[in-house]
Structures are given as C-alpha cells and as structure tokens.
Amino acid sequence: MSNLSHPKGAPPAKPPREMWSTRKVFILAAIGSAVGLGNIWRFPYVAYENGGGAFIIPYLVALLTAGIPLLFLDYAVGHRHRGSAPLAYRRLTPKAEGLGWWQVAICFIISIYYAVIIAWAGMYMIFSFTEAWGADPATFFISDFLQVSENINIGFDFVPNVLIPLVIVWALVLLVLAAGVQKGIGRANIIFLPLLLVMFLLLVIQSLFLPGAADGLDALFTPDWGALTNTGVWAAAYGQIFFSLSVAFGIMVTYASYLKRKTDLTGSGFVVAFSNSGFEILAGIGVFAAVGFMAFTAGAEVGEVAGSGGIGLAFIAFPTIISEAPLGALLGVLFFGSLVFAGFTSLISIIEVIISAVQDKLGMGRVKTTWIVGIPLALISILLFPTTTGLNLLDVTDAFVNNFGIMACALVTVLLLTYAFRKLPLLGGHVSDVSSIKLGLGWRILVGILSPIVLGYILISELIKKIQEGYAEMPTWFVGVFGWGMVVALIVVALVLSLIPWSSKSAANDPVLDAPNKKEVSK
Amino acid sequence: MSTAAIIMLIISILTVWGGLGLALVNLQRHPEDDTRMPEEHAPEL
Which of A48, A116, A125, A208 has the least C-beta neighbours within 10 A? Predict the structure, then answer.
C-alpha cells in the first residue's frame, strides 16, 4: 500500500520516526524488557513446584511452540506497520485498533504498581548495609517498612520510606524516556543490562559457595517425571514463558516499530528469547542455592523454608538469608540491585508503550509527550501505592491484570488476527522477507491453533478458580472494583479510545505505512 | 546433590544457553545491513 499524498522527494512534514541505531541496541532493550522481576522471583518457584528438573521439558516446549512464535507475531505487527500498538494494529486493519489501546491500558495499570516494587528494592539495597530488618524480616517488611493497615481499602496515609524512593524512580524513568528511543531507552539498556548480568553472576557465585547450596539445587533440579502427565504443569510452563517474554502487551510491537526496515527479526528474536530463558535458569540457580543455605541455617528441609516466591522471597526470605550469610551486605546489594536494574529496564518498556501511543495519536514531540503521559501516571502511582493500604491494592491489580488483562488480550489478539482478520499469512510473509529464519505454515499453526488453545485453557482455569475461591481472602467489593472492575474497565477504555478519530496532526497520516516490497528487500 | 539433579542441571544449562549460543551464531552469520536507512526501503517515499 503506498501513500500517494507523499510523493518521492517531498520534504518530510515532521521529524522522522525515532529508531534504534543498530539491532544490537534493540536486542539489548528487548532483553531488558523481558528480563524483569518475574525472572528472578517467579521462575525458580514455578520450576520447583512443577516437576523440578523435569520442568525443563515443558518449559522448552512452551518456549519454542508459543513464546517465540508469539514474539514473532508482535515483531511482525510493529515492524511492518511502524507504529505504536494502536497505530500498528490500525494500519494492519482499522478494526484492530482497539487491541492496541487495550495493550496501552494494560501497560498503564502495570506501570503504576511496578514502579513501587522497584522503590522497595532500592530501599532494601540500602537496608542491606545495616540489616535494618533485624531478627524478624517479615514483621519489619509488613509493619515497620510498609506499615500495612489492617483495613483493606484505599487510604492516603503515606509512608515516607516508600514515597520518597518512588518519586525518585518516576523521575529517573521519565528522564530516560524523555531522552528518546536511542539516547534514552537504548543507552539505559546498554548500561543497565550488562550491569545486571555482572551483579547477578556475582550473586550466583556467592550463593553457590554458601553451605547448603547444593541441597537447594538438589531440590530445584531433582526431576519428578510424573509431573509431565499433569496438564497443570504444562499450563504453568506456558504461563511462565508467556509472562516472562513480554509478549502480547504492546512492548514488542512498540520496540520492533523502531527497527530499521531490513532487520533480521527471527534471528534477533531467538537471541532475545534464549537470553531471557538463560537468565531465568541463572536466577533459579542463584535463588535456590540461597534458599538451600536458609534451610541449612534453620536446620530444616528446603521445602519447609522455600515459601512461594514473589514479594515474600525478595523482601522476607532474602533478608533472612542476608542476615545469616557471610558478606551478607554484599549479597543484599547484589540481589536488590539486580531487582532494581531488572525492574527498571522493564518499567521503561512498559511506559514506552503508552508514550509511543499518545505521541502517535497527538502527533507531538517526544519530550512533551513524555511529560503529558508521565506526570499524571506518576501522580496516580504516587497517590495510590506508597500508602499503608498500597500493598493490598498492588496484590489485587497485579493478579488480575496479568491473568485477565494480558492473558485475555493475548487470546483475543491471536483469535482475531487468525480467524477474523486473517492476517497471519501477511505478517508471516513480512517476517520471512526480512529475516534469516523463515516463517511458514508451522508458525501459523502454532500462533493460530496451539496458542489459543493453551491461552484459553489457562484463562478459563484461572477464571473458574477466581470465581469459586475469590482472591486471597480479600473483601468481595475490593476484588470486585480493583480486580474484576479494573479488567473490564481496560476493555471499555480501549473501545472508547479506538473510537476517537485520528487528527491530521497524528502519526496516522505519516508516509511510512507499509512494509518494503520483496524487490527492495532482496537488493 | 543427587545424580539425577546434577544431570538435569547440566541439561537445563546446555539446552538454554546452548540455544542462546546457536541464536548468536545465526545472527552473526546474517550481519546487519548498516548502509541503508529504513526510509530507503519504504516504497512510498
């Protein structure tokens, strides 16, 4: 499709779309986005609880049959249509624009609470020097640090120890984003990602030398082959891969839209996907070696002290380990520093989805858009979460936006693109035109048939579970408003935003609308 | 550590990091074409 209103040689009406200087920067940014808190505190426990060493089989199958194919789908949409998620989907077919806004709305919700966890980790990095949590890290975290209220509602009793670092996190992330795609996001990833890797490697090495480390690894890697016959284990593997790779919520669409025309999408995607998994394996080793040490000092079995990962692992179990371990302060700085850097590069990518969409929609410059989007976003985050009631709100929004936001959006996206809009041949063809590894019928089957089955299974299972059991013994009204209500609101907002026309100033009228033709690419 | 755990640890590392190694080799064999900017490829310009 060519745009006849922009004949060859016509001067550009506005600055050209931003782009990565090289594909290496894109790959680093995409890895920075994929490697987040979930790699460190979710993967080790999912593996441990779902077959241990045997989990590697469903994990690799899920990576190759759903994670990487869906990653390529995102790349194809963003790269072919060179726009933020709403614009890229709109250019694919106007009826799909709402999918892009749905993804933007999901990123809005995630960003406002994700920043808070980075703020906590930053504070815990400082606490590590003095082991401020004392003898009872659980009480310290809940009562002293977060000052969690017994009332589950929305309050405005601010906790300065969280508020101040949260303001700093927002200031830093917005400064990075205001600097632009290459100078801001690219540079931040070039600095933070290698730093994260070095810090985490040191953490793993230190953990491996702790007494009891071998017991922790034994618990993580001893295979339970019987688990492979359990569909729940396979669903857990697909769920882990899906959440870990940053697919289906607009990030990879946005990042791929900043790539040069002739970029090896599949070659780059394999590097990103295996780097993400490589980091997860490393995290499993580091975390379970440390958990093994915790069991050793407690004179207990690994299973008795392992907990269930997530916030409990980071802010309760790890402080316990740091207090007991030789060179504990170093271990603390490495662990919480890794959380900060892993989280920061992911947060950048989540907010970029929103900034990019608003920038395209309003046709404004990068800096102006960053403040127009970033300041309200930061204020909402600062108003709701560094409070005595923030933890419960975070807990509910996180659980619901992941399971019924991202997961539902992914399912609807693959179903619409495959069966309603029938765009998979077009998108696969585009990727094949520019890439080293071609996508054919196999890819279309994985995206159009296998992925909806797996995503549908996980989504329905979660739906039944949440309807039958509620969520974490929280009041029905609270879960109703900030869980169910929020995920429905995301869809309503997406539909409303997709009805707002694109003005003449918007990027919808920019000249670069379509993929290069085959003749151009093969030059 | 049990033998089974050691074997699965090694297999996990080899498959995932081996996959990363292969992906990097594949990418190196297809170097980036730095000489062209994206606009040069866009048919509508």
Answer: A208
Whole-number mean pLDDT of chain A? 92
In chain B, what residues touch A267 (CB-CB under 8 Å)?
23, 26-27, 30
Distance CA(A114)–CA(A499), nearest Å, equals 29
Higher pLDDT, A303 or A509: A303
User: Which sign does the torsion angle of CA A399, A112, A343, A314 carry?
Assistant: negative
A181 Cβ partners below 8 Å, 6+ apart?
Answer: A18, A19, A20, A258
Do residues A23 and A260 lie in contact, with contact meaning Cβ atoms separated by under 8 Å? yes
Chain-chain contact of A512 with B13 (C-beta, under 8 angstroms): no
Q: Which residues of B touch A1 (CB under 8 A)?
A: 44
- ipTM rounded to 2 decimals: 0.88
Q: Which residues of B touch A13 (CB under 8 A)?
A: none
pLDDT at B26: 96
> pLDDT category, A104, cuts 50, 70, 90?
very high
> In this model, does residue A521 exceed pLDDT 50?
no
Element (H, E) at A456: helix A451-469
Q: Which residues of A153-184 are buried (b: 16+ CB within 10 A; e: fewer)?
A: eeeeebbebbbebbbebbebbbebbbbbbbeb
**CA A310 to each of CA A307, A316, A339: distance values in angstroms, whole numbers, following the listed order:** 9, 10, 12
Burial grade of A455 (CB within 10 A; 0-12, 13-18, 19 or more): buried
In terms of Cα–Cα distance, which of A160, A157, A166, A164 is closest to A388? Answer: A157
How close does chain B come to A23, measured CA to CA in Å? Answer: 7
Q: Within 10 A of A200 (CB to CB), how many other CB atoms are there?
A: 24
Q: Look at residue B37 and tell me whether its pLDDT is greater than 70.
A: no
If you average pLDDT over residues A282-307, what whole number do you get? 92
